[in-house]
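Running this now, will post back.
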Amino acid sequence: MKKVLLIARAKSPGSVQKADLFADKMRQLLGNEDIQIENCEITELFFEVAKDKIGIYHPEKKFDVRDFDLVIMRHTGKCWVEAQAIARYCERFDVRYTDTYLDRLLLDSKLSNEFLLWCNGITQWPWTMYGPVDELVRRLPELGDKAVFKDSNGSKGRLNFVVSTPDEIRAIVRQYPDVQFVLHEFIPNDSDLRILIMNKHVSMIIRRTGDGSSHLNNTSQGGDAELVSISEVDSKIIDLSLKAAHVAKLQVAGVDVMFDARNNDFYFLEINNAPQISSGTFTAEKSTSYAQMIQSLLEVELVQ
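Update: finished.
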């Protein structure tokens, strides 16, 4: 039996009904024992990434996207982040999908970051979840006594919270109804690294240490910064950071890495496609590296 999943972006009751009717029509036209049609709305799906697993599933209908032979994204609307993650997921597990233009969308979200890089072998991510609030609340206890709840499109530590209870999650969602939040495990740490990559080279590494007033190390949130010699950082982290920039097709990237204070395991937090260059800390050094990158790119063009 072949299984087909129709995914729509249907928000209003009327559009949901139309999507269901269309799925019924497909069942009638393709109705036989060899083809099974399932359908859902894209925001009903739940997304999960961890070091050792990845998944996109429907909490109520109990299916995983990888269960299907063909996934058709009929309408995605503004849910391009979810759509891109689904496209990467389908490619990773050899599931045919339409439309394949979705694999060229701009990488600009923590969620799409993680799915793209995990599916390309970079799996060192905190256990992360995204999707319907009821399912986030149900699974919150799996992450321990506290977790991080943050804007998937946020920067500079904005809209980044530590949560311990379902009520806290629901209150944040009510306050910011239009924000896409991801939930991930809390990693105890005393600092993190921002690895700046410019034109396939690590140009500098900045260690950021929080001021103790929150769980954040961002300098924009009061953290201190110091330059770290590239030779001091594990070559595996350097190589994976360079690979991440390559996979994401970024000539300029800021890769954020955190170390677990309990066992010194490292985790990638995100890869920024617009890291602070002209602002923040060490602007003179960053600007010099940026100018050198421009020169090197021009030289490559001249050689070609």
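The longest strand covers residues 201-209. More later if anyone needs it.
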